[in-house]
Amino acid sequence: MTETSAAESVTTATSTENPVVLSVNGLCVDFPLQKGVLHAVRDVSFDLRRGRTLALVGESGSGKSVTARSLIQLVERPGQIVAGQIQLLSGEQPIEISALDPKSSQIRAIRGGRIGLVFQEPMSALSPMHTIGDQIDEAIQLHLKLEKKQARERTIELLRHVEIPAPEQMVDRYSFEYSGGMRQRVCIALALACDPEILIADEPTTALDVTTQAEILELIAQLRKQRGMAVLLITHDMGIVAEVADEVAVMRRGEIVEHGSVDTIFYAPQHAYTQLLLDATLKLEQASALKQGMVAENGTQPVLSVRNLCKHFVQEGGWFRKDNRVVKAVEDVSFDLYRGESLGIVGESGSGKTTVGRMIMRILEPTSGSVLYTGSDQISYDVMKLRKKDLKRYHSVVRLVFQDPFASLNPRMTVMQIVADPLKAHRIAQGRELEQRVAQLLEMVGLSPDMMDRYPHAFSGGQRQRIGIARALALDPQVIIADEATSALDVSIRSQILDLLLDLQKRLDLSFIFIAHDISVVRYFCDRVLVMHKGRVVEIGEADTTCTTPAQPYTRALISAVPNPDPRNKRLLHRTRFNPDVNATASTT
């Protein structure tokens, strides 16, 4: 058989086994602006096939989410579909979705009924005023016309299907009583309530830690296989694409620049932008060449010495629970941070990482423990005993870079005002000298001083994070605590920010505490890594060693849940799961 005839037979088999259920041809979506038109989606075409996953991948602003929302006529005004066809082909007669009125009963029947949508942020997608059961019941009754009792039975079965524990009890709980991973499972149950033929998952794991992310991806893959659904997965993470996708469409500036099988995209990319995304992803799979290593020798006094740090919260009883309960958010945490070192703190959501960082800053008061700071003058003091005046001085040498570059900058202040604020608060500079210092700081983080009169909304996410870093560097700090400082950024921007921080560390002799749930980022950036689980330190060691050959079962489970950007070596298929009871038994035998 010739290569051409072999390819034709494969195509025919795929068409037979995985027929097209939705076809998009020449889709264009515009947003009219005061000074022109934003072409958010331009001439986009693709097919969704039964039982297969198409990953729509690209950076923020590439048009992925607008494309997905167009499929069910949910584009926010003033945006509108101006050209192209969206055809639903799975029924007896094709339906031209792009021709339907967004407010019509026809499109409402398709939304949730034949096409399910899983939103990016489950907390905002679910109503805090209604129980989980009531929200799913409403969708079932609306589309399937079932009686209330039958709808409730189906809701409980759906919760069981997405592996919500004790669904008979959890059905009457509210969204705020669920964890982040459980809320996302509820969103999946809601999307599947009416047995849709197509599932659109819009960044369904962005806000989740790696183990919860792995569980959600596994659940979507399992449901796709069981129900024979077509899945459109929207993501900017090439590791996730390699793990779960059959086909990949790469978007940039509203256009699909490359489309092919997952193997072709990863092993024979044709477009420069696809190669850029892959290079940025693969770069984070190894330690950075810029990483200077731990410069402290044995016996050298650390810049920060944390000892037996604890934080207990008292949860007062209410309607459902009369007695008070003590939550041990952080329990007996101890470590040292040396001058010029980067120490990563990793763990799942709720492990206590951010709480430790906030206690070091004295934003949160610890229940017990100490934090000893030693400055460049070799004078040491316990941070927990500082008075307000002295604490202000401490905050000038230990600075914080926040997670969200959008929420951490005041939209009513210019870049000049934002970066100059700590300099003015500590009365370090004013007038012409202040402006020159801000210009130097902007140049240091790779921004032009000409930008200082602009407001935050005029900058991209990566540029905003650079502004936040410039503000943190304004007072010549010794230590920077970066709390998930790159998690909100696209992968290409993420590597740029990490390289910037490594360069600044080398030039300014900075020490970093880098809080993250992304193991690849920690391996790339940090010298040592501290792993936390349920408020306690599980393991601490050299980053390369800990991330490659971890000693503890929990760390091994954490690392095995990180998506591998190689479709020929899918890590999630062989991931290990941490069972505290089994591991505790094994450790005592």
Walk me through the structure.
The chain is α/β, with parallel strands linked by helices and 589 residues long. The chain has a domain at 304-314 and 324-564: Rossmann fold (3-Layer(aba) Sandwich), CATH 3.40.50. The protein has 22 helices and 20 strands. The strands form 4 sheets. It has a 6-stranded mixed beta sheet with strand order 6-7-8-3-9-10, sandwiched between helices. The radius of gyration is 26 Å and the shape is globular. Residues 1-13, 294-299 and 584-589 have low confidence and may be disordered.
Give a brief outline of the structure.
Helix content is 38%, strand content 24%.
SSE layout and pairing:
Layout lengths: L2 H15 L2 E14 L2 E14 L3 E5 L6 H7 L9 E9 L6 E2 L8 H6 L4 E4 L3 H4 L6 H13 L3 H14 L5 H4 L9 H13 L5 E5 L7 H18 L2 E6 L2 H7 L2 E6 L2 E7 H6 L4 H12 L20 E12 L9 E13 L4 E5 L6 H8 L7 E7 L5 E3 L5 H10 E4 L13 H11 L5 H14 L16 H13 L5 E5 L7 H18 L2 E6 L2 H7 L2 E6 L2 E7 H6 L4 H8 L19 H9 L1
Helix pairs in contact: 5-6, 6-8, 8-9, 12-18, 15-16, 15-17, 16-17, 17-18
Features:
589 residues, alpha/beta, Rossmann fold, 6-stranded mixed sheet, disordered C terminus
Number of helices: 22
CA(first)-CA(last) distance: 60 Å
Count the strands?
20
What is the CATH domain class of the domain at 304-314 and 324-564? Alpha Beta
What is the CATH superfamily of the domain at 304-314 and 324-564? Answer: P-loop containing nucleotide triphosphate hydrolases
Name the strands of the widest sheet in spatial order. Answer: 6-7-8-3-9-10
- The CATH topology label of the domain at 304-314 and 324-564 is Rossmann fold
Q: Tell me roughly what share of residues is in helical segments.
A: 25-40%
Classify the beta-strand content into a percent band.
15-25%
What spatial form do the alpha-carbon principal axes imply?
Answer: globular
Quick one: biggest sheet? Answer: 6 strands, mixed
The unreliable regions are: 1-13, 294-299, 584-589
Helix-strand makeup class: alpha/beta
What is the CATH architecture term of the domain at 304-314 and 324-564?
A: 3-Layer(aba) Sandwich
Mean pLDDT score, rounded?
A: 87
Gyration radius from CA atoms, angstroms: 26 Å
